[in-house]
Design goal:
The chain contains 8 helices and 16 strands. It is of the alpha+beta class and 389 residues long. The strands form 5 sheets. Strands 3-4-6-9-10-11 form a 6-stranded antiparallel β-sheet, with helices on one face. It has a 3-stranded antiparallel β-sheet with strand order 1-2-8, with no helix packed on it. It has a 3-stranded mixed β-sheet with strand order 7-12-13, with no helix packed on it.
Length: 389
């Protein structure tokens, strides 16, 4: 081969290698809104992606958090929202915001690695320590994949016909999540700081099961978001640009319209904040874990229980209220809540159990939330009064 041709081939090879290198370091693609269908990979959406040892939210994808989160077998969660340019959600003080068509919410469930069992593929940490969840220098906007194990990412997408839930399960390599329309069951083992272990099965719900929690109005019969509501979002968040109240931040971004100043918006307590009154913490805990069903419009409205934090009627809250039709779920107890007597209260009995047909909530967990049980126990124990025969 002539030297000129050989040199040209070498030069072409170098150009190809350079192009490949540039392609690997290019900025991520824009978010892809799918108006229909269910992509096979989470990465097809370009919402949150595993890159450079981190789970990163794409440009324009805003992370958020809740004052008190739903309990999900001790999983930590990374939540995001994305809306089309120029679109905004309409504020609502009580119910879900009115999100525009094109909105996509993600919720990634993950666990910190168990420090004492790093080589055990099933072992995950049982704690509330988030100090090592996020990558250094990213505030709370990118997870550090060296310290956490990704389990699943659930998508709620607002399409023309309404909201649709799409579940994805992360692969073993932690590089992408794959569509899991029929759900999944993942054997894991919770390991606490004293190396005590509890084996359990983490259940990824199938598409139909999502409606079990997300249909909060039995008349409308449509799923809707649970977390992004005023009382849950009204808190500060550590963004890359600084810490700011989430309602104020969304308003500043132009993605929320009609919201008042945070001080005038409702706010649930942080269930884990020992400085807050125990009643406020317990009501926030029941609100986020139970009120999607136990409300005047929810699937369990026939029980006459209203566990929303805004409900001020103690009878509807369960105080001295006999069950409507709980069957063996009563545990032979007479009232939902007996003031001063948590062990005689059906509410405590049901949230302590993880037996199908007895446990509450009915889905979303395979373990008992010990700290949540203790909170509700302390709350009931502090109540005054007696229940008549």
């Amino acid at each position: 081969m002539p030297k000129a041709e050989e040199g040209a081939l070498v030069f072409a090879s170098l150009l190809l290698a350079f192009a490949s290198l540039v392609g690997c370091t290019q900025a991520p693609k824009d978010v892809h809104f799918f108006a229909e269908g269910k992509p096979e990979k989470l990465s097809d959406w370009h919402l949150v992606e595993a890159r450079g040892g981190k789970l990163v939210a794409n440009a324009g994808v805003v992370p958020y958090d809740l004052n008190t989160p739903l309990f999900s077998d001790y999983a930590h969660k990374f939540r995001t929202v994305w809306m089309p340019n120029g679109a905004a959600a309409k504020y609502d003080a009580e119910g879900p915001f009115d999100f525009p068509v094109g909105t996509v919410l993600t919720k990634t469930f993950f666990y910190p690695h168990a420090a004492s069992a790093a080589s055990d593929a099933k072992a995950v940490a049982r704690n509330y320590d988030v100090s090592r969840d996020f990558a250094a220098g990213s505030a709370d906007e990118a997870l550090d994949l060296a310290n956490v194990r990704l389990i699943e990412t659930r998508i709620l997408v607002r399409r023309e016909h309404g909201w649709e839930a799409i579940p994805y399960v992360w692969n073993a390599a932690q590089t992408d999540a794959e569509l899991a329309r029929t759900g999944d069951a993942i054997p894991l083992e919770l390991v606490d700081d004293k190396n005590a272990r509890e084996a359990f099965t983490y259940v990824v719900p199938n598409e139909a099961q999502c409606a079990g929690c997300h249909v909060t109005n039995v008349s409308a019969k449509q799923i809707e978001p649970l977390g992004p509501r005023a009382r849950h979002l009204n808190k500060d968040y550590s963004y890359a640009g600084g810490t700011e109240n989430q309602l104020a931040h969304w308003t500043k971004l132009g993605t929320l319209a009609g919201a008042p100043e945070p001080a005038q918006a409702p706010r649930d307590a942080d269930w884990h904040d020992a400085k807050a009154p125990v009643a406020d913490r317990a009501r926030a805990y029941l609100d986020v874990n139970c009120s999607m069903c136990h409300s005047p419009t929810g699937p369990a409205n026939t029980t006459a229980l209203d566990l929303r934090s805004a409900n001020a009627n103690l009878r509807l809250l369960g105080e001295c209220k006999p069950p409507v039709a709980a069957g063996r779920g009563t545990g032979d107890r007479l009232f939902d809540i007996v003031p001063g007597k948590p062990d005689e209260s059906i509410l405590l009995y049901r949230i302590t159990s993880h037996e199908p047909g007895v446990m509450m909530p009915e889905m979303g967990r395979s373990t008992t939330h010990r700290e949540g049980v203790e909170l509700i126990r302390d709350w009931i124990a502090a109540m005054q009064g007696t229940c008549g025969a």
